[in-house]
Amino acid sequence: MEFGLDLIQQNKNYFNRLEFMKKSKRRMYAPPEDSDFKRLYIGPGLTKKERKMKEKILSKEVRAADLTKAKSVADLVAAYGNMSIQARNIGLCAKVYENMLRDKDRPTIFLGLAAPLIAGGLRKVIRDMIEFGIVDVVVSTGAILYQDIFQARGYKHYIGSPDVDDALFHDLLINRIYDTYVDDEKFADTDEWIARFADRLDSRTYSTREFLYLLSRELDDENSILVTARKHRVPVFCPAINDSSIGIGLTEHYRRKALKNEGRVVIDAIRDNYELTQIVVKSKKTAGIYVAGGVPKNFINDSVVTGYVFGRNTGGHSYVFQVTTDAPHWGGLSGSTLEEAKSWGKVSKKATKAMAFVEPTVSLPLIVGYVLQRGLWKGRKRLKFRWRDDILESI
C-alpha cells in the first residue's frame, strides 16, 4: 500500500513538474534518447547563464580530513572547515572567532556560559580564554562560578557513571552531575563559606559583578576563572545567581541577618542590566560567544536591545557564534538561531556568525585550541574598565 501511494505521488510530482515547465518554458538538460531518465527533463538544456550559476554553486568540493597531515588541534579544526555537517560548523565557528580577534575595530567580546562546564572538565579552557585575552566580559550561570569556587577551595569533581544507585548516593552524601560526582559535605561547607563571606561585607546593594570581584579576592588559585578574571579586571556577571549554590549561601546569610534584625547584602539584579548595557553602548563593536545558551545568552543579547535606554542603537553584534545541543524547532532560546536574533536587533543584519550543534565539552576545546595554537591572541590589547560604583566611566 505504501509503495502504491509512493508511485501515485511520484506521478503527480512528474505531471505537476511537466505542466510547470510548459508554462514557464523552462529548459533543462536533455539526456540521451535511450536514457531511463528522459522523462524527468524537457527542452534543449541549460542556458549559458544557468550553467554558469550551476558551476558556481558546485565550485567548492568537500575535502576529506587527512589525519596523517593534521599535527595539532588547529590543523584538525582547519580541516573541519572543508568537511560537512557539524565538523564544518565547528570550523566555521573557529573562523568567526578568528575574525573577531583580527578586526581592527577591536570589538568587545562577551562570553556567555551555561551547562555543566566545570563538571565536564572545561575549567582550564575557560580560564585560559580570560588569561590569553580572547574574551573581555563573562556572563555565567551561578553553577559554573560556584563550582569554580568549589575547586579553588581545594575540592574536586570525580569521574563516575550515570548508571548508579542514586538513592544510595543520597545516603552517602554524594551528588551526581551525569557521570561526575561531588562530595555533598564539601558543597555544604562551601555554601557556608559564601554565607560567612557575605556576613563580613557592608550591608548595601551590590551588582553580581562587584560581589563576585570581592569574593574572588578570598581565593588563591591560578587556575580559577574568577581569580583570573580579577587579575585581568575582566567583569564577570551572574544574572541568575540565586539559582545556584551561591544563592543558597546568600540565603543562609539572609536568614542569619533577618533573625538578628540586621542589615544584609542585597544583590541588585537590575543593576547588572544597567552595568552590562553600559559596556555595550560604550563599545565600538560587540561580539558574542555562547556556550550552550540559557540566561547568559539572553542576558547578553538583551543588553544590546536595552541600549535604547541610553539613546543608542548599536546595530547588534558584529560577530557571534554558538555551540549548543539545543535544537531550534522547540522554540526555546538556547536553540534559537542567530538568524532569528536579527529580528530583535540583537545580531547585526551583516553579522559574521556560525552555530555548531555539538556538546560543549567536545566543541569548545577544539575552537579555543584553534585560536590559541594559531596565536590569534597575540597583540590584542586588553580593555580597561573604569567603574565608579555602578557607572562605567570609560573603557
The CATH architecture classification of the largest domain is 3-Layer(aba) Sandwich
Percentage of β-strand residues: 5-15%
Number of strands: 13
The first-to-last residue Cα distance is 69 Å
Mean of pLDDT: 89
CATH homologous superfamily grouping of the largest domain? Deoxyhypusine synthase
Question: Which key terms come to mind for this protein?
Answer:
13 strands; Deoxyhypusine Synthase; 395 residues; six-stranded parallel beta sheet; alpha/beta; 15 helices
How would you describe what is shown here?
- The chain has 395 residues and is of the alpha/beta class.
- It folds into two domains: 2-57, no CATH class; 77-394, Deoxyhypusine synthase (Deoxyhypusine Synthase), CATH 3.40.910.
- 45% of the residues lie in helices and 14% in strands.
- It is built from 15 helices and 13 strands.
- The protein has helices at 2-24, 48-57, 73-80, 85-102, 123-131, 142-152, 166-171, 184-200, 208-216, 225-231, 245-259, 269-281, 294-305, 338-342, 360-373, and strands at 108-113, 137-140, 158-159, 174-177, 180-183, 205-206, 236-237, 266-267, 286-291, 317-323, 347-356, 386-388, 391-394.
- Strand 9 (286-291), helix 13 and strand 10 form a beta-alpha-beta unit.
- Helix 3 crosses helix 4, helix 5 runs parallel beside helix 10 (225-231) and helix 12 (269-281) packs across helix 13.
- The protein is globular and about 90 Å long.
Tell me the layout of helices and strands.
Elements: H1 2-24, H2 48-57, H3 73-80, H4 85-102, E1 108-113, H5 123-131, E2 137-140, H6 142-152, E3 158-159, H7 166-171, E4 174-177, E5 180-183, H8 184-200, E6 205-206, H9 208-216, H10 225-231, E7 236-237, H11 245-259, E8 266-267, H12 269-281, E9 286-291, H13 294-305, E10 317-323, H14 338-342, E11 347-356, H15 360-373, E12 386-388, E13 391-394
Helix pairs in contact: 3-4, 3-15, 4-15, 5-10, 8-11, 12-13
